[in-house]
Amino acid sequence: MSDFVYADHAATAPLSKAALKAMMPFLTEEYGNASSAYAAGRRARRAVDRAREKIADAFGAHPDEIYFTSCGTESDNWVMRSPELCSEKKKKIISSSVEHHAILNTLEARKHTGLPSELLKADSNCRINVSRLKEALGSSTALVSIMAANNEVGTVMPIAELAEASHKAGALFHTDAVQAAGHIPIDVEKGRVDLMSFSAHKFGGPKGIGGLYICRGVPAGRWLYGGGQERGLRGGTENTAGIVGMAAALEESCENMEKDTHRISVLRDELISGVQKIPGAHLTGDPENRLPGNASFVFEGAEGEALVLLLDQAGICVSAGSACSAGALEPSHVLLAMGIPPELARGSLRITLGAENTEDDIRKILEVLPDAVARSREAAGK
Ligand SMILES: Cc1ncc(COP(=O)(O)O)c(C=O)c1O
Fold first, then answer.
1. How many structural domains does the chain have?
2. Of all protein residues, whose CA lies closest to atom 14 belonging to ligand 1?
3. CATH number (domain holding residue 311)
4. How far apart are CA 236 and CA 276, in angstroms?
5. For every one of its 382 residues, what pLDDT tens digit does the chain have, with 9 covering 90 and above?
6. Which domain holds residue 85?
7. Residues 59 and 173 in one domain
8. pTM for this prediction
9. DSSP string covering 145-160
10. Residue 147 CA, closest ligand 1 atom number
11. Which of 252, 283, 305 is the last residue of a domain?
12. Strand ranges for 177-252 from DSSP E
């Protein structure tokens, strides 16, 4: 992809060299099943154990609190659909209207079974307010689930405060950290988190592997019936290569976090100030508390999907917040929840930078974008 400017890291990040190197033996000669008793199996088991330790270390957790899944969506489903986290008296889940569909659609499905849930409103910066959560919490609340950082506008949530308020009301706290893990520091103990979802492909690991942190003593229950893998809670032969690649990518991201955060946020800020010179461009998300690589906007009178295609013609990969639903472009639920009018939300664009982006990439985006916005407005008759 070297001919392209890749600026869609929130969709997926390129596989890191360290992850590929760590995975290669397990994709080739080390194909043993981690549950087999002979030497090849034991080598795979040791690699899985070592990876679990590294991941636990990166999040301030114990290795026996890390469970491997296939992706962030699966981890979110596990938590939202676990009957063991609820009881007859406590069965309500409180979440937010700006969560990923992995949470929202699972809650919707749960609602059909008669189990209550409530979605908190976000403020205009996409932050979930602790006082709003306190008002919603009650003795019937079993679980609160608020994402650590938003995938569309990059807003970082006050997780520790939200978790503290949840605990005071006797509820457990889950965070979807799919966008935050590997990008901002995470310490499950300091953050007082009980459950946390993460996914390798967002921080330089391979696709098809993710994980769930379950704090000791939290009864998340059995998710996949099968063999006894993952301490009997999630059956299925371990994806050794994926697990090892995820651990290597996370270790590398954490080692480089300080330096990368600085470099990437300098590029992001340069991009933001350049884009804000385009008339009718507005930054979306929290100007202060945002992920280092996220620069997201709405453009008055423009169409996000058209912008994506116009930038693609210039070799730039970015994404729009809108989603195609029943053949029509629906504005993003996140932007609408932030109070952005539908007309304006249709003109959304998300640019997400990563460690390999350069000054030249920013220059190219800033060269191409004003004309793309003008052409999109023209096509929309604005
Ligand atoms: C916040 C958030 N949660 C969950 C997911 C789903 O993760 P996965 O692609 O690993 O299923 C995503 C993916 O974009 C995400 O951004």
1. 2
2. 11
3. 3.90.1150.10
4. 49
5. 568 999 999 999 999 999 999 999 999 999 999 999 999 999 999 999 999 999 999 999 999 999 999 999 999 999 999 999 999 999 999 999 999 999 999 999 998 888 999 999 999 999 999 999 999 999 999 999 999 999 999 999 999 999 999 999 999 999 999 999 999 999 999 999 999 999 999 999 999 999 999 999 999 999 999 999 999 999 999 999 999 999 999 999 999 999 999 999 999 999 999 999 999 999 999 999 999 999 999 999 999 999 999 999 999 999 997 555 555 578 999 999 999 999 999 999 999 999 999 999 999 999 999 999 999 999 988 7
6. 17-252
7. yes
8. 0.97
9. E--SB-TTT-BBP-HH
10. 1
11. 252
12. 195-199, 210-214
Residue finishing a domain among 252, 286, 301? 252
The CA 80 to ligand 1 mean position distance, Å, reads 14
Residues 230 and 301 in one domain: no
Residue with tokens 């945002």: 290
Asked if 324 is an active-site residue, the reply is yes
65 lines ligand 1 (CB under 6 A): no
What contacts 305, CB < 8 A, 6 or more positions away? 320, 322, 329
Ligand 1 atom 16: residue of nearest CA: 151
- Round the CA-based radius of gyration of the chain to a whole number and report it: 21
Asked if 275 contacts 369 with a C-beta cutoff of 8 angstroms, the reply is: yes
Q: Rounded to the nearest whole angstrom, what is the distance from the C-alpha of residue 37 to the centroid of ligand 1?
A: 35
For ligand 1, whether the C-beta of 179 sits within 6 Å is: yes
Distance (angstroms) between ligand 1 centre and the Cα of 208 equals: 11
Same domain assignment for residues 66 and 178: yes
Best of 179, 291, 296, 333 for a ligand 1 pocket test (most atoms within 8 Å of beta carbon): 179
- Of residues 71, 215, 317, 324, which has the active-site annotation? 324
Compute φ and ψ for 319, nearest 5 degrees: -140, 165
Q: How far away, in angstroms, is 73 Cα from ligand 1 center?
A: 6
